[in-house]
Amino acid sequence: MLPDDVIVFERGWLSANNVLLIGSGPATLIDSGYCSHSFQTLSLVRNALGQRPLERLVNTHLHSDHCGGNSLLQSSFPGLETFIPPGHAAEVLRWDEVALTYAPTGQSCPQFLFDRTLVPGSEQELGGMNWEVHAAPGHDPHSVVLFSPQKGILISGDALWENGFGVVFPELEGIHAFDAVGDTLDLIECLAPKVIIPGHGPVFTNLSGSLGIARKRLEGFINSPAKHARYAAKVLLKFKLLDVQEISRHALHAWATDVTYLGILYGRYGSEQSLREWLDGLIAEMLGAGSLRFDGKQLRNS
Ligand SMILES: [Zn+2]
Asked: Is the pLDDT of residue 270 over 90?
């Protein structure tokens, strides 16, 4: 499905998948996972490269689960050149944790530096292949996707997964972005990749099937923004559970009280209940769906 010099590390959902390009030229890693998995990311890269150094690091976007390993990789490989999408370059320079979404999501990301930006419309030679850089707003306004026309490979980040796409974060702040999600899906359809390496989940080839699922999901969110809001709130809670694995209900409530995005969603969609009741409703749905377990004492990831 993929050439031998394109290696995908499919990770659990806390960390985005990593793509290692080991063809001619500098060895390149695309996306680096969540910070709590950064040593695992480093050992995956070292095991695959042997004595060869990692020379380039590229981020499709700057969510914590895609660039949380940047800092460790930068300190482990002197001379590593880091490429980020240009939209958040100023915020990385001044390390603005609010604009970079780490603070409002209640997530962590160690500070990193960058050397160059991946300007949409440009081409980059990475791992001995030419990659077109395309803007892919929606899930994140500054995301890019990378497309190799010669090999028909798309690195789609969180713009398209086999069974959907990531939370449309701008919508949580009241910024319309569902249209942008649709435009990005149209762009991907035009590129017509043969193989898609998503930010999460398995590599896949059924583009039309995945676009059908994504468009249906998008239509559901457009028809009911409250449904998207509830989904987003559960994703934020699940992310926390993926990170800590187990937590008391009381501690989860306390954490959630400080998470700006949950506060906004509660204010807009849940305020006829207390925050506690609203959170308990979400937790009950997650327990019902099997994405959480309760062992009588602690809530656990499952
Ligand atoms: Zn993302």
From this structure: no
CATH numeric code, 6-223:
3.60.15.10
Could you report the per-residue pLDDT of 192-215, keeping only the tens digit for each?
999 999 999 999 999 999 999 999
272 Cα–ligand 1 center, Å: 30
C-alpha of residue 234 to centroid of ligand 1, in Å: 15
Task: Give percent above pLDDT 90 in the chain.
Answer: 96
The rounded distance, in Å, linking the Cα atoms of 178 and 164 is 13
Ramachandran class of 116: left when φ > 0, alpha when ψ lies in -120 to 50, beta otherwise: beta
| Three-state DSSP string of 17-78 | CEEEECCCCCCEEECCCCHHHHHHHHHHHHHHHCCCCCCEEECCCCCHHHHCCHHHHHHHCC
Element (H, E) at 82: strand 81-84
| Rounded Cα–Cα distance for residues 270 and 263 (Å) | 10
Whether 271 has a pLDDT exceeding 90, the answer reads no
Ligand 1 centroid from CA 66, angstroms = 7
Average pLDDT over residues 183-200: 98
For the chain, what are the domain ranges? Answer: 6-223, 225-301
Is domain 225-301 classified as CATH 1.20.1070? no
Q: How far is the CA of 105 from the centre of ligand 1 (A)?
A: 12
**Which helix H or strand E contains 252, and what residues bound it?**
helix 249-257
Ligand 1: centre distance to CA 148 (Å): 21
Give the distance (Å) from ligand 1 centre to CA of residue 188.
17
- Residue 166 alpha carbon to ligand 1 centre in Å: 6
Query: Strand 116-117 and strand 6-9: pairing?
Result: unpaired
31-81 pLDDT tens trace? 999 999 999 999 999 999 999 999 999 999 999 999 999 999 999 999 999
pTM confidence score: 0.94
Nearest to 185 by CA among 232, 231, 136: 136
